[in-house]
């Protein structure tokens, strides 16, 4: 579904940088912040799950921690709840260090993906359980239970057996049981993941309304991008244990700071480009006017085009880009088409009008619909050890290199090689080292892969070959491409 509608003609579309582009710029001494996560890292054995995470959360804010499986978002939530201890760093609440405070003493409650209701208790008894543990009087308990039943839309369900409820109703009971204890913070760990699509969308709206009515801080974990955009005041995008970007949903969607965020949040066309000068960028063999500035002349950049921001029409001789439709799929509210340009670039386009496969078309891209990002890296750089004059140990293997007459064997060195210098092999024993494809980014006319070597280091590879996430590969680099310098 199109999440960012095309501007109408004449609309002011000046691009504005996000308030919090990469790291959280908010100050920890601000009393408005109820939660402070201060340089938290977490290791499980030799595996690092969180890497120096810092985050400040406002009172009453709906914050969503978003990322793919294994990015560390649930571990971070469990550290907030007190179920896990950080290896390094600390957690503060209202200015006080709660890192060592046990879960039951923290003024926060957690709603899990699996609702953890008591099957032998009815709805009323499940919700009242926490208050009874506190030994509150029966009249007070009854008033509070009936109040939260109304909030979660379960009035007249108090006598029902929880096993007789639908998944959405059970989720409401779990939320009611959490909020009746009047927590300052409600933690929600993918609470809607087990629901079907329609029920999940209904519960999203109900959660948003509950947050508005209750006024407490919600910290929500999900891997669902649309859910995060729908619910949140602030989104925290994570990958591989680190925060990639923090911002409002509109900032995250319209102003991604790197290719991972652009690719993970919604659909994107991500292309290599050159920033010729302020407000002028070169990509797909064309110079385009844009609204971005602050780049070096002729700086290599990444360009993001959202599919709904590319205008498509019948072939026009005066258009900037021409091509042919190679695929067209109806998505319910729009058509999603793949267009191969005359210069061989493949673009995804979303439009309310259908263009048939094989039809020749033209494309228009407005300056305000082009988003330019600084390139994260320009080549691979890894730490290594020179084994002898023509071999270097890196990435868990031994690679051949050109003779190194000025560096002694056993010396720690730095090795540099380009993205195009790596050849991936179908069989791991065909390469000098082995690895796993861990991230795939399509850049219009080639793939840019992240390959995690068996030694745990990431390298980046440009290729026209199609690989799948999780593929085991051999890593081969020609000797003349291995550039060595002293560490």
Characterize this entry briefly:
This protein is an alpha+beta fold and about 475 residues long.
Keywords for this entry:
single chain; 487 residues; alpha+beta; Rossmann fold; OB fold (Dihydrolipoamide Acetyltransferase, E2P); 3 domains; six-stranded mixed beta sheet; five-stranded antiparallel beta sheet; 8 helices; globular
Q: What proportion of the residues is helical, as a percent range?
A: 10-25%
| Portion in beta strands | 35-45%
Query: What class would the helix/strand composition place it in?
Result: alpha+beta
- Count the helices. How many? 8
Describe the main β-sheet briefly: 6 strands, mixed
Radius of gyration, in angstroms, nearest whole number: 26 Å
CATH superfamily of the largest domain: P-loop containing nucleotide triphosphate hydrolases
At CATH level 3, the topology of the largest domain is Rossmann fold
CATH architecture of the largest domain: 3-Layer(aba) Sandwich
What is the CATH C level class of the largest domain, in words? Alpha Beta
Overall mean confidence score, pLDDT: 88
Distance between the termini: 49 Å
Low-confidence stretches: 1-25
Shape: globular
Beta strands, count: 30
| Quaternary structure classification | single chain
Strand order, largest beta sheet: 6-7-8-3-9-10
């Amino acid at each position: 579904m199109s999440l960012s509608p095309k501007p109408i003609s004449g609309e002011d579309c000046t691009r504005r940088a996000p308030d919090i582009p990469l790291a959280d710029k908010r100050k920890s001494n601000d009393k408005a912040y109820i939660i402070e996560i201060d340089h938290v890292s977490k290791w499980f054995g030799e595996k690092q799950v969180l890497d120096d995470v810092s985050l400040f959360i406002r009172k009453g804010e709906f914050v969503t921690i978003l990322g793919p499986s294994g990015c560390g978002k649930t571990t971070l939530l469990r550290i907030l709840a007190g179920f896990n201890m950080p290896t390094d760093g600390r957690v503060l609440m209202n200015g006080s260090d709660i890192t060592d405070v046990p879960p039951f003493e923290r003024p926060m409650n957690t709603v899990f993906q699996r609702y953890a209701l008591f099957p032998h208790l009815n709805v009323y008894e499940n919700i009242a359980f926490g208050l009874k543990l506190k030994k509150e009087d029966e009249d007070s308990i009854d008033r509070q239970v009936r109040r939260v039943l109304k909030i979660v839309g379960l009035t007249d369900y108090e006598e029902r057996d929880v096993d007789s409820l639908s998944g959405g109703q059970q989720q409401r009971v779990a939320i009611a049981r959490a909020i009746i204890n009047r927590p300052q913070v409600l933690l929600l760990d993918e609470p809607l993941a087990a629901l079907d699509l329609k029920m999940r969308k209904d519960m999203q709206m109900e959660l948003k309304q509950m947050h508005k009515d209750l006024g407490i801080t919600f910290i929500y974990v999900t891997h669902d991008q649309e859910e995060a955009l729908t619910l949140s005041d602030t989104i925290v995008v994570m990958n591989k244990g680190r925060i990639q970007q923090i911002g409002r949903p509109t900032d995250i969607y319209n102003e991604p700071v790197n290719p991972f965020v652009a690719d993970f949040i919604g659909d994107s066309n991500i292309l290599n480009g050159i920033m010729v000068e302020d407000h002028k960028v070169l990509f797909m063999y064309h110079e385009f006017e844009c609204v971005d500035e602050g780049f070096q002349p002729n700086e290599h950049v990444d360009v993001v085009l959202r599919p709904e921001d590319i205008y498509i029409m019948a072939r026009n001789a005066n258009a900037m880009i021409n091509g042919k439709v190679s695929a067209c799929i109806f998505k319910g509210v729009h058509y999603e088409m793949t267009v191969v340009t005359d210069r061989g670039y493949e673009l995804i386009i979303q439009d309310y009008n259908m263009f048939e496969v094989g039809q020749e078309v033209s494309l228009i891209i407005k300056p305000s619909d082009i988003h330019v990002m600084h390139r994260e890296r320009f080549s691979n750089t890894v730490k290594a050890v020179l084994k002898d004059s023509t071999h270097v140990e890196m990435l868990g293997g031994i690679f051949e290199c050109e003779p190194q007459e000025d560096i002694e064997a056993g010396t720690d060195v730095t090795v540099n090689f380009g993205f195009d210098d790596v050849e991936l092999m179908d069989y791991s024993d065909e390469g000098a080292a082995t690895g796993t494809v861990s991230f795939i980014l399509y850049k219009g006319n080639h793939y840019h892969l992240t390959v995690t070597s068996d030694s745990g280091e990431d390298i980046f590879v440009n290729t026209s070959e199609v690989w799948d996430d999780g593929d085991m590969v051999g890593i081969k680099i020609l000797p003349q491409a291995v550039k060595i310098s002293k560490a």
